[in-house]
């Protein structure tokens, strides 16, 4: 796997220097204690295993580094509850956190409140779902993105599926929230893979990341397009909804399904041949990468603000085999 998480060595050096400074102060008998920075992690729906894994990874990292920072973890109940996520950012600004690491529910709607956070002196790191470049420019704000190339990850999954199909076969796509950059990129990656293999995308609709909605939409797709040979889902929750739809239509043996996220339920479904592939963007480490880069900027606010590409890997039955 290529090295695509720069700056971590710098972080170790910076934190090491900080530890040495603290030890030196204690040795001189100083009574004041260096205040630890507070970092807020704000995610999408914690009902989605991907984000609960992300929260667990962040908490574990803080537990391993208790002297370096304090962590506040927040999430919303519903992937589409954008107003609640805006409120969470406002609450974190009011509570004077040093940094916010956020997986935005919407790539455009969160930009204004994050601009206010930066104006209040809060370091902001964008993870998972990239904020919209045009809106960032319009708001005159620069926020670094730490996360995977969703288009490349989706194309890996699409290419794997295409190798199991024939030219001219028909497929459908279940999209995520259409105003989310990661949803847009996964759709594009899927479409490029299908175009290159001359496979027809006969329908694509948004199920807004939700399993139950994906079940309903996939059932309708299968009814309207009985020729469909596969369903590409832009996240694993929707892939599981498609599994239920395919089973309900009595087509579990002739409709293939792929997803994106590598949650445990989908790993089991892959082992049982209900889903053939997904993409792992290492959600348990994604927030950690964001926190590490936030700590760099807290330590040195004048450090260059750069995007960081994190890993995304194809997961199949073969890769899950011991």
TrEMBL record:
SUPFAM superfamilies attached to this UniProt entry: Periplasmic binding protein-like I (SSF53822)
GO molecular function, one term: carbohydrate binding
A Pfam family annotated for this UniProt entry: Peripla_BP_4
Signal peptide: none
Periplasmic binding protein domain span: 39-298
Predominant location: other
Domain of life, per lineage: Bacteria
Entry's Gene Ontology cellular component terms: outer membrane-bounded periplasmic space
Subcellular location: Cell envelope
Family indicated by similarity: Belongs to the bacterial solute-binding protein 2 family.
Protein name: LacI family transcriptional regulator
């Amino acid at each position: 796997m290529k090295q695509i998480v720069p700056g971590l060595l710098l972080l170790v050096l910076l934190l090491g220097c900080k530890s040495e400074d603290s030890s030196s102060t204690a040795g001189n008998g100083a009574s004041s204690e260096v205040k630890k920075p507070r970092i807020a992690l704000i995610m999408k729906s914690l009902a989605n295993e991907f984000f609960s894994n992300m929260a667990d990874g962040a908490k574990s990292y803080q537990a391993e580094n208790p002297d370096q920072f304090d962590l506040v973890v927040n999430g919303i109940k519903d992937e589409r509850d954008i107003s609640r996520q805006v409120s969470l950012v406002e609450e974190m600004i009011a509570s004077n956190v040093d940094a916010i690491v956020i997986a935005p529910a919407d790539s455009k709607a969160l930009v204004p409140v994050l601009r206010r956070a930066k104006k209040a002196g809060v370091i902001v790191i964008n993870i998972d779902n990239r904020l919209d470049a045009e809106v960032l420019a319009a708001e005159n704000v620069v926020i670094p993105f730490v996360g995977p190339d969703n288009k490349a990850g989706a194309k890996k999954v699409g290419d794997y599926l295409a190798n199991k199909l024939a030219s001219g076969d028909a497929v459908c796509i279940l999209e995520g929230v259409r105003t989310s950059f990661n949803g847009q990129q996964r759709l594009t990656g899927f479409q490029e893979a299908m175009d290159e293999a001359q496979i027809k995308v006969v329908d694509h609709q948004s199920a807004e990341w939700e399993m139950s909605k994906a079940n309903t939409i996939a059932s309708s797709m299968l009814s309207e397009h009985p020729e469909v040979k596969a369903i590409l889902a832009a996240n694993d929750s929707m892939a599981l909804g498609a599994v239920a739809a395919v089973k309900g239509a009595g087509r579990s043996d002739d409709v293939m399904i792929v997803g994106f996220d590598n949650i445990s339920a989908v790993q089991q479904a892959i082992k049982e041949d209900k889903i053939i592939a997904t993409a792992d963007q290492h959600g348990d480490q994604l927030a950690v990468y964001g926190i590490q880069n936030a700590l760099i900027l807290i330590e040195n606010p004048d450090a260059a603000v750069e995007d960081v590409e994190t890993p995304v890997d194809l997961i199949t039955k073969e890769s899950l085999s011991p």
